[in-house]
Design brief:
Largest sheet: 3 strands, antiparallel
Order of helices and strands: HEEEH
Number of helices: 2
CATH class of one domain: Mainly Beta
Structural class: alpha+beta
Number of strands: 3
Radius of gyration: 23 Å
Strand order of the largest sheet: 1-2-3
Length: 99
């Protein structure tokens, strides 16, 4: 009977260790997610670039990177965010054709 308890305990420990290793080594976890959003419009002239958050994030978001290297999460559903993204894209296309 004692061998049965030892085997069960050892099996439980192995399963627990495997589960914690799998959770700790998840290579697909998002690098940056937005959990709080900046609500006030940011002047487009202050924004250098933007990044969209990964699909694995619980909320869709856009990260604006400003000239002062600040990273600000904004809600992509806001009209001002969509307009800013469009203007940044146009600015980047125009800038790349100057070469």
């Amino acid at each position: 009977m004692r061998n049965l308890y030892c085997a069960l305990l050892l099996g439980l420990l192995v399963v627990t260790c495997l589960q914690s290793f799998a959770a700790g080594n998840n290579g697909k976890s998002p690098d940056e997610c937005c959990f709080n959003f900046f609500n006030k419009p940011i002047p487009v002239r202050s924004i250098v670039s933007y990044e969209e958050t990964r699909t694995e994030c619980p909320k869709a978001g856009v990260v604006f990177i400003t000239k002062k290297e600040a990273r600000m999460c904004v809600d992509p559903g806001f009209k001002w965010v969509k307009r800013a993204i469009d203007q940044i894209d146009i600015r980047n296309v125009e800038g790349s054709t100057d070469d």
